[in-house]
Every structure is written in structure tokens, then in C-alpha cells.
Amino acid sequence: MEELGWTHKDLEVLLGDKATVSRILNRKRELTVEMMRKLSVHLRIPAEILLQPGMVTA
Questions:
Q1: Distance, CA of 41 to CA of 47 (rounded, Å)
Q2: Cβ atoms of 19 and 44 closer than 8 Å
Q3: What is the largest CA-CA distance in the chain?
Q4: What span, in angstroms and rounded, lies between the C-alpha atoms of 29 and 42?
Q5: pLDDT of 4-57, one tens digit each?
Q6: Phi-psi bin for 27: left (phi > 0), alpha (psi -120 to 50), beta?
Q7: pLDDT averaged over the chain?
């Protein structure tokens, strides 16, 4: 996140409100498939990179 110059606000636009972003960054909430899709598009990375154990909720 820091390497890209992103802030919590940048992630809020993609992932939800401040509380949701904080829970994700603190590993208290996993990424949903929709969140992974958004990150994949904005980061220009294959979604498969985000499909690792502990990162997905149904």
C-alpha cells in the first residue's frame, strides 16, 4: 500500500467504509470476491494472486 502511495481513503473507495478497511488491514476480516475483483482491476494484477488461503470469504 505504501509502495503505491495509497492511503486508507484510497482503499475505502474500493473496499468500503473506514471500519471495513481497518478490519481487512488488521486481518480481522477477509477480502470478498468482489473486493478482490476491484483490487485486481485497480492494481492491474491477476485476481489469482489475491486468491490465497485466508483471503476469501464466501
A1: 8
A2: no
A3: 30
A4: 20
A5: 888 889 999 999 999 999 999 998 998 898 999 999 999 899 988 888 766 555
A6: left
A7: 87
Q: Looking up cell 488491514, which residue turns up?
A: 25
Which residues contact residue 34 at a Cβ distance below 8 angstroms, ignoring those fewer than 6 apart?
Answer: none
The C-alpha cell of 57 is what? 470469504
pLDDT at 54: 60
**Spatial separation of the C-alpha atoms in residues 26 and 22, rounded to whole Å:** 6
Pure H helices in 1-58: 8-15, 18-25, 33-43
C-alpha cell at 8: 486508507
Domain ranges of the chain: 8-57
- State the pairing for strand pair 56-57/31-32: parallel
